[in-house]
């Protein structure tokens, strides 16, 4: 089973990036080439890797992309926490994006669990 770009998960990932760009605009100028660049690159990588997963040629490649997506979600959450701890972004401003992250993580986790179960029975 592959993640298909027609699925809701890809659309949610695609909607995430512009919202993260809006957050990045609120970071101070001195973070323009550090934290701002990190959070936007991570946000772009999430739907990009979902699309790559849809094009995976085999189960191993598919699993690799799913792991990359999970890692990128965790990476963005970490970057969010760093920005909050530094006082650059408050929780209210990041909650919408955090909710979007969870809307991607939930079906991805379900898919990973289903595939693990399937692998264990085969």
UniProtKB/TrEMBL annotation:
Classification via InterPro entries: 23S_rRNA-intervening_sequence, 23S_rRNA_IVS_sf
Pfam families on file: 23S_rRNA_IVP
Coiled-coil residue windows: none
Annotated protein name in UniProt: S23 ribosomal protein
The species this protein was found in: Cloacimonas acidaminovorans (strain Evry)
